[in-house]
Amino acid sequence: MNQQFKWLKQRPTKGLAFPTSREGATLTYIPKYQSVVLFGGICNGRLNEIMIFDIQKDEWKVQQTQGRQPSPRCYHSGFYDESQNVIYYYGGQADKGRSLTDFYCLSFQSFVWKRLFLLESPPNRHNHTMCDLPGMEKIIFGGACLPEDLMYNDVWIFNYSAIQFTNQQEIPGAVATKKNCKGEHPAPRQGHGAVVYQNNMFVFGGKCSDETTQLYKLSLDNYQWKRILHLGKAPGTRAFFSTSLIKDNVIIFGGIDNVANKVLNETYLLNLTDYHWSSPFTAGPIPSPRYSHCSCQIEDIILIMGGIEQTYCSMDMYFLSQGSINQNAEWEQLKEPTELEKQTNDAANQIIMEGKMYLNQIEEAMMKERQKITDLQKEVQNLQEEADNLDTHIKKQTAIVMGEHQKASQNNKNKEIAIETIFLMIKQEQTLTKQLNYKCQQLEECIQNSYPLLHTLDQFYQSIRQIQGSDPADLKVKKMADQFANDIQKAKEAQLESLSNIYAVYQKFTALSNRNEVELNQWRDNVKDMNNDFEQLIFETEHD
């Protein structure tokens, strides 16, 4: 009695939904709900639907989600965090073979998608590995990048402990840090296998330049790479196989031989205590050769589905478990069948083939319908993006209009202050003009009142000038009269000059008042035009 492995094949019979054949998808086990989540992959096109298999009910269902879901992709990585009840997905390959670098998470309670915002992200990649670390951290290694046609051997630590779950579509808090490693670095590669065991990461296989069966170990204490010498017969060079860790054993299945280009369905085991490779005996219906299939662990049981050989493999569920098996009894089941058994088997095979053909037809019809749903989801996503862009544009235009409104309001306020100042100046000028007119009227009255007196003085002066004789008194009077006449003439000239100056000042005040009145009217017209422009801008914004 040896401790060996056994395959169990299962195809759910309940429910109407069943996943289409695909490669490059991810399977994620959700212990809390005893469910398995299938996401992404590629068949006729890349997919981004979420399908959930309920282990207890033995049925699949298509899960509807909310929020902006990830773009269709394949060859990505994913994991489930039980403390947050959230599934995370990273990277992958999008349409036209373009590699991705985005992180998404999906709440398994509300089924709302969120995209993670990282200040620094690993370069775009697909066909990489992401392994568990203690706490809320994962380690990312290797992968390929298209269309740049690159392969990586870099190491990144993804920490999601500080994620802040908000109502926003993009949430912060996650951090990705590149580690500078030393030692014997493995060559850049994709489609490899990796596990973390006792604070070391082990890497094997993959598509790379050296095409060897070398096993590598990275110490997570000092990030030092080291080549490991293994015991036993190691599997040949291969890539795109599934890798699982059960206790202290690494179990790989399937893949494609890098040298012979042969698709495989072998199972190998690597014991990490002594680095010994072995090919254990496996009983039960062994899955057909395949690579790029998806797998996950349900406690100590390995589940694989899908993948591709020459064509896409079926999505039948294969469970690999370890237990006590009587190898001789298994071989007894392989004895030569009787003729009746052969006929029965042939008839059964014929029925199975007809059933498979019918199932393939159903799968093709379902695939077409799912493609239609995917196309509709893309259209909805595009419409949502257009609506978001339009909303952003409206917000920007509204901000611009409000800014212009604030500027216009400030300008109007300044102009109102200027108009009030001009009104005050005009009022002051009007007051001064009234005072000046009053003074001019008083001066004219004084001049009019002085005319009779001047006339009398002129007559008196003329009579004095007619005095003849040489009497000293007469001569003195005549001299005084001449002096008085000169003073009167000077007084007249001074009055005329003062009157002329006053009239000139009056004309200046009148001209200044007229000019201020014209400028005031111009200010009024400008304010009126600005109000009309602002009302037109508000009208256009509201109708856009």
From TrEMBL:
It holds the Pfam family Kelch_KLHDC2_KLHL20_DRC7. Keywords: Coiled coil, Kelch repeat, Repeat. Residues 359-400 form a coiled coil. PANTHER family: ACYL-COA-BINDING DOMAIN-CONTAINING PROTEIN 5, FIBRONECTIN TYPE-III DOMAIN-CONTAINING PROTEIN. This is Kelch motif family protein. It comes from Paramecium octaurelia.
